[in-house]
Structure to design on (610 residues):
C-alpha cells in the first residue's frame, strides 16, 4: 500500500509540476481540490459502505461461530481448522479442476476470432451470433444445459444420431462427471466474451510485421507463434484472467440451477460452498471465512495480472 | 472444434511467360475459394452450437409437457400455462424497476467521480482511485453474508431498496474506472479554457464534460443492465418478498423447485431472455467497447 501511495504522489508531483505555475494560482488549486473531493465523495461512500466495510466485517466474522444472531469468538484458529478439513479440500479440488477449462475457454475463442477476421461472407452476423449468449442469464443457460446433459437429453440423442449410441452419458447424476458438464457449459458461455476480446486484439495487430516475415520465407504456423501471438499477449492475459475470475465467482447461478452443487460435493465450488454454509445451514461464520478465502484468491489473481502487465510495459 | 486455420504456405512467386501462369492463377483461386468455403462451413456449425439454447427454448416451449416427453407435436398450451406458474409481467416490471434505479445511482455517482479523478487531481486522488478500482476484485460471495445480516437489521431484505443499493455498489467501481478513462481522453485544454472563462470546476463537468460523455454512459448502462437483469444471488437474498422478485429470481425459484414442467420453464426462460437480448442487439457496439476498456489504457 505504501509503495502505491508513493507512486501516486510521484505521479501527481510530476503532473502538477508541469502546469501548476506560481503561487497566484493556489486559490484556484484549492478550489479545484475541494471540488474534486466533493465529486468523488458519493462514489467513495457507496463503495466503502457497501463493499469495503462488509469485507472487513467478513474478516471479523470469519473468526467467529455465528448464526446471524449470536456470535462466539474463535480466533485465527478457525482458519487452521478449515485447512485441515477434508470437505474444504474436496471443494477446492473442484475449483482447481475448473482451471482446466481456462485454456479451452481462451484458445477456442482465439481460433474463432482468427476465423472471423478472415471476413468470410456473413462474418458480422456470425460475430453477433457468437456474442449473443453473453446477454442471457446463467439461470437460463443452466436450465437448458441441464436438459442437454440429461439422460434423455439432447447430448445422447446427438451421440446416437452420429452412430455413437454406445456412448451413453449421464454426466449430471455422477459425482465425478457432473463438473465436466458444468465446465463444458462454462467454456461455451465464455466463447462470446473472449472472441470479442481477441477480435479487438487482432484489430490492433501491425500487419507489416507479418508481411515482413512472409517475405523472409516463414510459414503460417511460424508467423502465428513468433509474430502474431506475442503481439496478442496482453489480450490473452486479459481474457485468461477474466475467465478465471468468472470460473471462481460467476458460476453460482449456473451451479444453483444445473446441479445444486451435487451430486454429493461433485460440483460444489468455493463460491457455492459459501452460499450453502451461510444460507443452507445458517453457518454464517464459516461462510464468511470461505468468502474471505475466495477474496484472497481473487486479490492474488488481480495482483499477478498487474505485475505481468507492468513487466510488459 | 476446428479452432486453427492453416494458412496455406505461399510458394515463391516465379514469373513465367508461358500460358501455365494463368492456369496456376486459376488453381490458386480455386484453392482460396475452397478454403473460404470450408471456413464458412465451420462458422455455420459454430453458429448452430451457439444458437442451440435459443432453438431448444423456442421448440420446447411450443410443446405440451406430454409432447415434450414423448417427442413430436405442437401446442401452445405451455404458453397458456405460463401466467399461472410465473407472474412474468409483474416480474418483468420488477426487473425493470431494480435495473433502472441501480443504473441511475451508478451513473450519478460514477460520472462526477470519474471527472474528478481524471481532471481535478488532488492529494491522494490516485490512491483513492486505486482503492475503488481494486474493489472490483471483491466477489459478491465474499461480502454477501455481512450485507445480508446488515440488511436484515435494517429490514431491507423485503424491499427493492436493499437490492438496488447493492447492485449499484457492485457496479460503481467499474463504472468509475470507465468514466475516469473516458474523461482522461478529453484534452486538458477544454477544462483549462473553461476555467479561464470563469467557470466553476463543477460547472465545467456539468456543462461541458458530461454532455460529451454519452457513449461512456450508455456503455455503462448497457453492461449493468445485462448484469443486473441476469443476476440471481443478490435478487434471491434481498428480494425475498415474492411480489418484488425479478424475472431471473422468479425463474431460478421455479427451476430449483421440483415442479419441473420443462416446456413452461422454457417459455419463462424465453420471456426473461428477450429484454436483455434486445438491449444486447441494439447496443452491441457499446458492449464491445466496455468489455475491452480494461485492456487499452
Amino acid at each position: 500500500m505504501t509503495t502505491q501511495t508513493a507512486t501516486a504522489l510521484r505521479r501527481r508531483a510530476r503532473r502538477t509540476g508541469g502546469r501548476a505555475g506560481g503561487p497566484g494560482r493556489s486559490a484556484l488549486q484549492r478550489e479545484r481540490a475541494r471540488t474534486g473531493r466533493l465529486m468523488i465523495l458519493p462514489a467513495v461512500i457507496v463503495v466503502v459502505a457497501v463493499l469495503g466495510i462488509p469485507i472487513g466485517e467478513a474478516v471479523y466474522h470469519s473468526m467467529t461461530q455465528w448464526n446471524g444472531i449470536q456470535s462466539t469468538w474463535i480466533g485465527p484458529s478457525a482458519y487452521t481448522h478449515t485447512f485441515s478439513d477434508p470437505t474444504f479440500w474436496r471443494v477446492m479440488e473442484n475449483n482447481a479442476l475448473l482451471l482446466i477449462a481456462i485454456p479451452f475457454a481462451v484458445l477456442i475463442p482465439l481460433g474463432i476470432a482468427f476465423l472471423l477476421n478472415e471476413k468470410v461472407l456473413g462474418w458480422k452476423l456470425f460475430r453477433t451470433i457468437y456474442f449473443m449468449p453473453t446477454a442471457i442469464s446463467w439461470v437460463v443457460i443452466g436450465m437448458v444445459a441441464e436438459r442437454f446433459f440429461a439422460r434423455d437429453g439432447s447430448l445422447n440423442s446427438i451421440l446416437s444420431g452420429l452412430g455413437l449410441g454406445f456412448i451413453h452419458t449421464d454426466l449430471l447424476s455422477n459425482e465425478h462427471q457432473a463438473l465436466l458438464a458444468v465446465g463444458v457449459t462454462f467454456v461455451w458461455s465464455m466463447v462470446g466474451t473472449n472472441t470479442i476480446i481477441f477480435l479487438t486484439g487482432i484489430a490492433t495487430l501491425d500487419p507489416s510485421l507479418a508481411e515482413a516475415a512472409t517475405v523472409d520465407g516463414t510459414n503460417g504456423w511460424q508467423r502465428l507463434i513468433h509474430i502474431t501471438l506475442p503481439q496478442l499477449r496482453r489480450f490473452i492475459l486479459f481474457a485468461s484472467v477474466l475467465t478465471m475470475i468468472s470460473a471462481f465467482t460467476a458460476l453460482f447461478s449456473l451451479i444453483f440451477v444445473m446441479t445444486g452443487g451435487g451430486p454429493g460435493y461433485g460440483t460444489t465450488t468455493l463460491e457455492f460452498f459459501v452460499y450453502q454454509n451461510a444460507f443452507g445451514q445458517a453457518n454464517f461464520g464459516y461462510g464468511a471465512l470461505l468468502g474471505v478465502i475466495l477474496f484472497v484468491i481473487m486479490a492474488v489473481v488481480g495482483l499477478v495480472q498487474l505485475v505481468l502487465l507492468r513487466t510488459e510495459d | 472444434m476446428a479452432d486453427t486455420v492453416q494458412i496455406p504456405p505461399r510458394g515463391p512467386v516465379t514469373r513465367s511467360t508461358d500460358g501455365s501462369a494463368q492456369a496456376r492463377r486459376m488453381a490458386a483461386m480455386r484453392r482460396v475459394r475452397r478454403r473460404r468455403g470450408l471456413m464458412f462451413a465451420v462458422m455455420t456449425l459454430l453458429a448452430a452450437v451457439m444458437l442451440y439454447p435459443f432453438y431448444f427454448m423456442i421448440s420446447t416451449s411450443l410443446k405440451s409437457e406430454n409432447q415434450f416427453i414423448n417427442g413430436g407435436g405442437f401446442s401452445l398450451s405451455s404458453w397458456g400455462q405460463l401466467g399461472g406458474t410465473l407472474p412474468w409481467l409483474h416480474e418483468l416490471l420488477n426487473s425493470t424497476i431494480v435495473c433502472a434505479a441501480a443504473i441511475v445511482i451508478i451513473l450519478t455517482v460514477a460520472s462526477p467521480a470519474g471527472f474528478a479523478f481524471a481532471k481535478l487531481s488532488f492529494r491522494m486522488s490516485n490512491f483513492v482511485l486505486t482503492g475503488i478500482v481494486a474493489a472490483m476484485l471483491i466477489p459478491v460471495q465474499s461480502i454477501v453474508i455481512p450485507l445480508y445480516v446488515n440488511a436484515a437489521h435494517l429490514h431491507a431484505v423485503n424491499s427493492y431498496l436493499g437490492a438496488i443499493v447493492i447492485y449499484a455498489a457492485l457496479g460503481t467501481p467499474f463504472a468509475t474506472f470507465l468514466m475516469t478513462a473516458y474523461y482522461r481522453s478529453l484534452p486538458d485544454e477544454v477544462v483549462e479554457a473553461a476555467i479561464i472563462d470563469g467557470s466553476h470546476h463543477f460547472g465545467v463537468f456539468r456543462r461541458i464534460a458530461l454532455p460529451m460523455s454519452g457513449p461512456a454512459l450508455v456503455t455503462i448502462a448497457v453492461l449493468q443492465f445485462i448484469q443486473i437483469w441476469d443476476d440471481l444471488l443478490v435478487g434471491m437474498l434481498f428480494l425475498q418478498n415474492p411480489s418484488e422478485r425479478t424475472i431471473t429470481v422468479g425463474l431460478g425459484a421455479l427451476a430449483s423447485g421440483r415442479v419441473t414442467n420443462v416446456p413452461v420453464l422454457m417459455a419463462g426462460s424465453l420471456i426473461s431472455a428477450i429484454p436483455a437480448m434486445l438491449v444486447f442487439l441494439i447496443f452491441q457496439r457499446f458492449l464491445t467497447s466496455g468489455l475491452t476498456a480494461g485492456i487499452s489504457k
Summary: DSSP finds 13 helices and no strands in chain B.
